[in-house]
Amino acid sequence: VVHCRYVNGIGAVQGGAVMVTFMDVTHVEHAEQMRRDFVANVSHELRTPLTALMGFIETLRGPARDDSQARDRFLKIMDDESNRMNRLVGDLLSLNRVESEERVRPKEEVDLTAQLASTLNSIRPLAESAGVDLNLVAPKAPLIVAGDPDQLQQVFTNLIENAIKYGGSGGIVDVSLTQVERDPAIRAPAIHIQIADKGPGIDSVHLPRLTERFYRGDNHRSRELGGTGLGLAIVKHIINRHRGRLRIESKLGQGTVFTVILPR
Ligand code: ADP
């Protein structure tokens, strides 16, 4: 059944008959609605820190002008809010870039073993400050795929940082790299990169929507931890570009496993 709303054109054809052509506008309307929702979300996300900044500037000009303690406290909050805006704009630009490149097949040779080891090294200080043990189990030999090294690094960084942020209470995050003969999701030989935490897990109602832009499992917690709600959307687009899949498995109270499946 085609959902037709508008008559696209009416014209006379031979023999006095009338020809009416219809245009299926369902997808056009859907895309338009998504665009409107996105603009509304971005505006809301930017306005929240902006309103805070404007409020504190006002206070610093007035009542807190001569109170050095209050001034330091407010400047710290203003610093946090500006950083939040900066992260949001950075993530929006990343999302825009990965979406526009999604159809361009990445061609560079990427050694996943080296890539993961270097990603873990740069995240280790964050894990240590959160009291999380970060482990990597990977083959010694190089494991090469055709890919975009910067984008794959972004995927691993986002997923491991999330595991520390949301699942860090479990005290351990395990990262592994394995080869499988055949993965049913991509029906081909594959490489699995798994990021597993033993945190509180994710309620199954959230799982199907987690990679949507601005979708957060726990709104309050994400904001408290400085999340933009765009990390997994970026991850999904990059994995699509690599013709891979993202699998998310979670059990409440037991933890979450994100598996990046890449064709070999
Ligand atoms: P955010 O900026 O909010 O972290 P993401 O797109 O990276 O945005 O993640 C979306 C949501 O997925 C998060 O707000 C969080 O609720 C949930 N999430 C992601 N990773 C985990 C995890 N390892 N454990 C529990 N929840 C997670």
Automatic annotation (TrEMBL):
EC numbers on record: 2.7.13.3
Catalytic reaction annotation: ATP + protein L-histidine = ADP + protein N-phospho-L-histidine
Kinase in keyword set: yes
Keywords, comma-separated and alphabetical: Kinase, Phosphoprotein, Transferase, Two-component regulatory system
Residue ranges constituting the Histidine kinase domain according to the UniProt record: 41-264
Gene Ontology molecular function, alphabetical: kinase activity
Protein name according to UniProt: histidine kinase
Organism: Falsiruegeria litorea
Residues of the full protein shown: 85 to 348 of 348
